[in-house]
Amino acid sequence: MKQIAVVSGKGGTGKTSIVASLAALASGRAVYADCDVDAPDLHLILQPQVIERREFFGIKRAFIDSAKCNQCGSCQDACRFSAISDFRVDLASCEGCGVCKLVCPAEAVEMKDSLAGYAYISNTVRTAGSCRTLTW
Predict the structure, then answer these.
(1) SS3 category, 118
(2) How far lies 10's CA from each of 7, 53, 91, 104, 118, in Å?
(3) What does the DSSP 8-state code read for residue 50?
């Protein structure tokens, strides 16, 4: 099986447009995976028929049990991402390192799975042949 990866760290460079064009030119069976973490938009162009949706869990995130927390501030002081304020975790800032859990004397911090999004398995009919599209 041949594989092609279209990557760039910069947005707006035409990665999705290139892949959509390749999909339109492909003959026979092909699989396309849109793994863009910020804007997986290949589905907007190919308009796939969703077959299956699966939950996708990323890194574990910190959660503070307010019933156990004695508000000593150890977790806030230790968090190098400034993800904890007022003894609450900002999930968008939490990198899941677990330092807050390690320094908490009250064992009030728990690392839990956090739903990052959904993965879709789809059939795409807008291409030449039957194609499968994966979108995260």
Answers:
(1) strand
(2) 9, 28, 24, 38, 23
(3) E
Reported pTM: 0.59
Q: Are 124 and 46 in contact (CB under 8 A)?
A: yes
Residue spans of alpha helices (H) in the chain? 15-25, 42-46, 74-78, 99-103
CATH of domain 61-112: 3.30.70.20
Q: Where do the CATH 3.30.70.20 domains begin and end in the chain?
A: 61-112
Q: Give the per-residue pLDDT at 102.
A: 98
Give CA separation, 82 vs 36, 105, 110, 116, 120, in Å: 26, 19, 17, 20, 33
Closest by CA to 136, choosing from 9, 41, 47, 19, is 41
Other residues' Cβ atoms within 10 Å of the Cβ of residue 41: 15
The 3-state DSSP class for residue 24 equals helix
Where the chain has pLDDT below 50, the residues are 128-130
Task: Give the C-alpha distances (Å, rounded to integers) separating 105 from 20, 70, 132, 136.
Answer: 53, 9, 50, 38
